[in-house]
Amino acid sequence: MMYNPITTTNSPALLSLFLATTLLSLFTSPTSAQQFFHISPFYAQDGSWITDTPEDIDHSLTFNISRPGAAGTQGGNGEAECRFSWTGSIPPSCYQACSPTSLSTTGGGSQFYARVTPGYQNMIAKNISIDILQSYSYRNFVLQNGTFSLQEESPNGENAIPGCYRCEQRYYRGYTTEECSLRNVSAGVDVPVEAFGYGIWPVGSVVDVCGE
């Protein structure tokens, strides 16, 4: 007969081990797996004339956010494009609303927001950090967030990321641009989703949203 330590002994230690193992399996099951924001494609650009100071440099960002495989209870699997620009060394600290590019096929529906993480200044295209917010409603209003950073990959492979972030300079009649992008668009970047809060609406009641 097979020996079962749980049913053939009253050992508190073995019972505690069994309960701990059971709870661990529940919390590590696929249904509670870490969720991600997927970023791809991603483009960043700095542009300046030879006489420009940091306060004159033009900056622009364009990237897509999606939640592949997310159920309606998680905001759905729709996609949005974030596109914003500014001039000067300090980017706006407010969150910019992103525009939906495809609707969720799994139900639900989200509004995405993004901004440059405060503190990142000057020549940001080569080394940039982005804050993301996702707002959706399922029984209650849910607000989730994440932050990701991109740094130009050096020739020897340092700072390498799955999407391979590369930059190049272009010159045209005295105007210089630093253009950076994820070269491996199919890989992109996955950003862990964190819980920001529940019962929050509108989003502008807890964070600064551009134009509100």
- Count of all domains: 1
| Helix percentage | under 10%
The overall strand count is 12
Order of helices and strands: HEEEEEEEEEEEE
The class by helix and strand makeup works out as: mainly beta
Question: If you had to describe this structure to a student in words, what would you say it looks like?
Answer:
The chain has 212 residues and is mostly beta strands. The chain has one domain. It is built from 1 helix and 12 strands, in the order αββββββββββββ. The strands form 2 sheets. Strands 1, 2, 3, 5, 9, 10 and 11 form a 7-stranded antiparallel beta sheet that branches. The longest helix has 16 residues, at 12-27. The protein is globular and about 55 Å long. The model is unreliable at 1-32 (pLDDT under 50).
Write the layout of secondary structure elements.
Blueprint: H1 12-27, E1 36-49, E2 58-66, E3 79-87, E4 96-97, E5 99-102, E6 110-116, E7 127-138, E8 140-151, E9 165-172, E10 175-182, E11 189-192, E12 194-198
Antiparallel strand pairs: 1-2, 1-10, 1-11, 2-3, 3-5, 4-6, 6-7, 7-8, 8-12, 9-10
Overview features:
mainly beta; 212 residues; seven-stranded antiparallel sheet; 44% strand; five-stranded antiparallel sheet; 1 helix; signal
Q: What's a concise summary of this model?
A:
The protein is mainly beta and 212 residues long. Helices cover 8% and strands 44% of the residues. It has one domain.
